[in-house]
Amino acid sequence: MPVLLAPERAPLLSQLLKAIPGGLVQKVVPGTGQFSDPIVAGLGALPAAGQHEASFIVHPKYLEQLAITKAAAVIVLPEIDELLSQAPVQPAYARVVCKHPYLLYARIAQWFDWARQPAREISVHPSAVVDPTAILASSVTVGPLAVIGARCVIDAMVQIGAGTVLGADVKVGASCVIHPRVAIYDGVQIGARVIVHSGAVLGADGFGFAPDPSLAKGAWGKIPQLGGLVIGNDVEIGANTTIDRGALENTVIEDGVKLDNQIMIAHNCRIGTHTAIAACTAVAGSTTIGARCTIAGAAGIAGHLTICDDVFVSGGTGITTDVTEPGRYTGVFPFATHSEWQRNAAVISQLSVMRKRLRKLERE
Amino acid sequence: MPVLLAPERAPLLSQLLKAIPGGLVQKVVPGTGQFSDPIVAGLGALPAAGQHEASFIVHPKYLEQLAITKAAAVIVLPEIDELLSQAPVQPAYARVVCKHPYLLYARIAQWFDWARQPAREISVHPSAVVDPTAILASSVTVGPLAVIGARCVIDAMVQIGAGTVLGADVKVGASCVIHPRVAIYDGVQIGARVIVHSGAVLGADGFGFAPDPSLAKGAWGKIPQLGGLVIGNDVEIGANTTIDRGALENTVIEDGVKLDNQIMIAHNCRIGTHTAIAACTAVAGSTTIGARCTIAGAAGIAGHLTICDDVFVSGGTGITTDVTEPGRYTGVFPFATHSEWQRNAAVISQLSVMRKRLRKLERE
Amino acid sequence: MPVLLAPERAPLLSQLLKAIPGGLVQKVVPGTGQFSDPIVAGLGALPAAGQHEASFIVHPKYLEQLAITKAAAVIVLPEIDELLSQAPVQPAYARVVCKHPYLLYARIAQWFDWARQPAREISVHPSAVVDPTAILASSVTVGPLAVIGARCVIDAMVQIGAGTVLGADVKVGASCVIHPRVAIYDGVQIGARVIVHSGAVLGADGFGFAPDPSLAKGAWGKIPQLGGLVIGNDVEIGANTTIDRGALENTVIEDGVKLDNQIMIAHNCRIGTHTAIAACTAVAGSTTIGARCTIAGAAGIAGHLTICDDVFVSGGTGITTDVTEPGRYTGVFPFATHSEWQRNAAVISQLSVMRKRLRKLERE
What we know:
Three copies of one chain form a homotrimer. Helix content of chain A is about 15%, strand content about 25%. By secondary structure, chain A is of the alpha/beta class. Chain A is flat. Strand 37 (about 335) of chain A pairs antiparallel with strand 36 of chain B, so a sheet runs across the interface.
């Protein structure tokens, strides 16, 4: 559905593929008629793509969508191409044969995302409030009503969105995109090519309190959070995600980490390179997560744990001890109809008794 | 407790009920003394309502609160009215008899909410930054330091709160209320009479990445999110809720959907008409939820699922497969004292073995 | 690692301890050489602290870190001091002996946090939009592009961060720190010394709807939220946390409550004094939580419940009934490898049948 370029500005398929880096394409099978080297003005899902759009198929289970698509070109796996080449009637669309169709789709999407951008005006909007001691590269764009605090250092090509607030002494590396309405506390350090979505809060105080009975029975005294927050290169941080600064040392997000929306990373955590965490997951304080982990949505990782590299945590799973072996870990109560759940959940409170009774029977 | 109007500006009960649409009231039983047709200056809960306030009772289990209330008038079910009419001493308060007391209370609250509003000044605050290419109906109110991007179209009677940021090409239908500090990304389309609370982020990028080993082992390449976000009429969106734009096609929130705070709706989802979702629920990508569903708080719906119409998901429940039958679904681990939990949870890891041992005993 | 003061501005250990209130220190054992009364320019964790920093040890399990620390001084429990005093070689660092090392650390961190602050300029930034009817004490600081609505009353020494929006009739008590980009709705009342972090939304509408079939099948009519939100003294509210206003009466957060990030407190709740709630916990509507409770992260408390004083809820636990006895409560599905989980979770749906089969065997 999203036609991204007017057809008269759009490339031919052959031109488009020439512009895509990486040598991913094995071969192109021309389509029929107008689709022998079609205009590609955008990308669409198989069922929705129109005659000026390319699409892709990553799995044979979607083959029936292929039968009905109106797309001009489809990226296909070699094995699907082989299937199609043996069909009695050849499909109208052109076939782009590729071992990694999802990656090729990503690269084409990146190309369209770049091609559709209007030339960006490089300017600091006059309504933005930039402290005179802040240092901005000349190619930095600052949106309306953004605030940049004292002694910030903003590197080349950075875009700061409308209404975003940077405290004092914040460092932002080259080519970062900070979307509107982000809050970044004092002293946070951000690498290059980082994307931060709206509503994210970076470097707020960790949750640190010491019981202080001198104030009142049960009262808590605040532990000032003196550490910082350091974010590597190529990180993406989703909307309304929060990452707290460290209590004494730094909270660290390593290179290439991808964080979805509404994630909570507590103080003193370290998230390893290329780890991806889906929405609404919470990581409690002082936990270290290794490299290349995948944490699915709404998971919870307790505090003071170490999770090794290459761990996959399923959605909704709570991790409560160290994980020392790569692999997939899960722990969710299976859902059922409410009445079935009532029957079975009631037995949970008797499990240890049931085990004893079972043992007793076995001994008899 | 909330007296919303000064008593001298407040209506008599009879005047108030005349102003409420819908023919909900069956009859009014006058109270005693000053409450024969009392002044109603506000609404209160039964235990807290004062002599200038109306209250309501939706269930006989609250009858004892009725004995002590100081309210001037109480909305009651017909069966409660009958009980009361047979009592030896008639209560002081007036009784408004109605089959749907909760709905009548909602309508009276709506009346007071309207009556207490000061006349709203229609104006674009001089500190707001409105792109000259944006089109605002003359009855639009824009708060201080709001930002409205290029080519936005804002329909009649819309209120945009202070510090809210609209990207480019955003459409907002008539009579919407966008509260302060909302972020709306480029191209988001919003229907009429939609309410968006502070901190909501609409149309941020979905979480889309393709493994790209050419960058580094385990590295992710960004998939630009080229789809949009379309929100129907009469939707309400809670504080700090995030709804992502689609990857290729649109994320769609249909008419009448009500979303509480801190909800996450991932890219490519479709939420059906009049579905209500309570706080902190997460819906993963490409999931379709039917019409008139109720999802309680902190639930999680996995991605690529279809939930049919009229499904009720209990709080904290994780839905991991399609739901094809209306009804209530639940799946939470029942809580207990920690020591009891320790005893019983330990048995979980032996359940499949226990089942085998049980079978063996049965065969013997 | 965080050296907070230049060594030439930093105090000697003896001077520092004199500045700390509370008589917490039992004795000081001088270190060797330059550490007999060392300069203390900051605080660090044991493994990271340098020669100008103090550190602390709260538990004997960290004794091995003590062997390698380079800290100038370490806060130790009396029993650890005794161990050390019997060692053949005395450590280089000075020992500050104290029964409550964590509290002493908190107090020293507070001192450094105060000492490192540059003198704060008291001023209302010219870009802030302050309604002429708002009343601000002369010692109030208002950041750039903040918005303060009509008839707000802001007490002495309050700091309002950049981009924060206060609606009309908001009251903020003395010495509060409202960080940048907070949204506070009309009429919210905040006590003294409250800290609110970025992205928090205070006083948005509760999630209240009445089924209104007159609009459409399954449609919801809005119940205006006429109550308020009252926050006591010494409360801390984390980043992106949301607390809704009451439907009729007030939502109440009592004195000394500490709320972490991304917490959701629904309408009509009351949270008792000194209760601490960790990140991502959700409390549904009309629930009352007692004093001195500790709710760990990602817990969920259902609506219309009463939790008594001194309750500890474990992380990820869903509380679904009243809790009337102090103690620790837990309810999470234990995680395992995915394949183990598959085997055991599948048995959950047969638990009630298994119990019956067990009974039958026992009777035989």
